[in-house]
Amino acid sequence: MKSFLILTIVLSLILVSSNFAAEHGAYFDYEGYTGPGYWSQLDVKYRMCGVGQKQSPINFHTNIDYASVSPYVYMQNVNYVRMENNGHTIELSSPQWQNSFINFDSTNYYFKQVHFHTPSEHRINGIHMDLEAHFVFEDPNTKRKAVVGVLYYIDPLGTNSNFIDPIITWAPRTKGNATYNVFVDIASVFSLVREAGPNWAYRYSGSLTTPPCHESVTWWVATKQLPISATQLVFNLRVYMGFNSRPTQSRNGRTVPGY
Amino acid sequence: MKSFLILTIVLSLILVSSNFAAEHGAYFDYEGYTGPGYWSQLDVKYRMCGVGQKQSPINFHTNIDYASVSPYVYMQNVNYVRMENNGHTIELSSPQWQNSFINFDSTNYYFKQVHFHTPSEHRINGIHMDLEAHFVFEDPNTKRKAVVGVLYYIDPLGTNSNFIDPIITWAPRTKGNATYNVFVDIASVFSLVREAGPNWAYRYSGSLTTPPCHESVTWWVATKQLPISATQLVFNLRVYMGFNSRPTQSRNGRTVPGY
Ligand SMILES: [Zn+2]
Ligand SMILES: [Zn+2]
């Protein structure tokens, strides 16, 4: 009976993963043989996850890394979202966001979606935070991406994040489902992290932190971390997505132990 | 100037690590080239970290894994401890604990030390907790180990863990330092997790979760998770030790995706 149960689970996961693979690339997750250490072997398209030289996430050392002059931010009407539980994370997107962008190096990168990782993927001085939000932008001409990473810590005062609140209420608990037309205050997150000043983020050249790990990403990781309540994180957000944080990667060309 | 700073840091880290290597094995940590994916290449003694078939930690699936009849626990005088910050974790030990033990399979395993990982190393249904305490026991005849793992979650009510409280107060903030003769109520943790009943823990045969990753460990991971406050964890314990959690490993002989 127990073997039968296991077999059934294996078969159904294989069916799910082969359907998924046909469209998007091989099934991956954060455990064992399908976890981060094996991503590059799961699909030829995932090769960069293993051989890349500018992979993300990384650990910042505040005695070496300094915040750079950060992007100009223009976010409008980034409110009514589609919330999808895609099996890896909760992702918020909307076709109405085509006019919202960040600008740096004389280029506009337009907002595509925001999603989450628990615990944080980037670390600061070797210390992780409880949640990381990735705001993904794209240059429509080059298809190069810019991702703004915002780290959240569980606040002892129990302060709820207003940005996270509607996600807790409306995000689908089960994989493959979506909720539509939910109001979320995305611009508020940018207001908060920009309180750090014009140099509000660490900049580096990196990759997607999930397969196919393409190295076409300019990262901007906010220096200011934001509070979230234990109720929002421990009993809600991380239960929906589970552990979905890639280990920190070595930096290209640098050999500082600890990176 | 910046290159010079980096060079100085590299040199001093190499000095530290070669001193350390002579005595204990090569330097390791949780980042980049010295992180978990590279442990087996750092020192010939660490080979098992790469080729082992029963490595820890793992992810438990509560539809497949059941708690087993768990050890008899006899903990006395496990109070006055030496607290060491060894660079990887905070470790509590005392020579007076030689009479405290757990018993299973007709064998006594005597208490040696307890230390911590953030976030938790074991996961349950793919979900991590905020902290994991490892209570390490040893059979003096065979030198085989038994480790009791207790997972803690940040409690929205802000409940302080009485066990953790004196650690926050007395644990050395800097690596290589120790504090002596601190009162800690270790037995109370066992009282709490045993409230789950006679089958209070998942049992499996695994390894040390740090180099040399020896596979001589019987694991007992408590099914009951315990509360810790955000102040204790976010602003204290994880700042002292940073991210020190090995990724979950594949199970020996099992090929269930997701393990
Ligand atoms: Zn991401
Ligand atoms: Zn441990």
TrEMBL record, chains A, B:
Pfam families: Carb_anhydrase. The keyword Lipid metabolism does not apply. Its EC number is 4.2.1.1. Residues 1-21 form the signal peptide. One of its GO terms (molecular function) is carbonate dehydratase activity. It is an enzyme of class 4 (lyase). Residues 26-259 form the Alpha-carbonic anhydrase domain. It catalyses: hydrogencarbonate + H(+) = CO2 + H2O. Keywords: Lyase, Metal-binding, Signal, Zinc. The keyword Amino-acid biosynthesis does not apply. Belongs to the alpha-carbonic anhydrase family. This is carbonic anhydrase. It comes from Glomus cerebriforme.
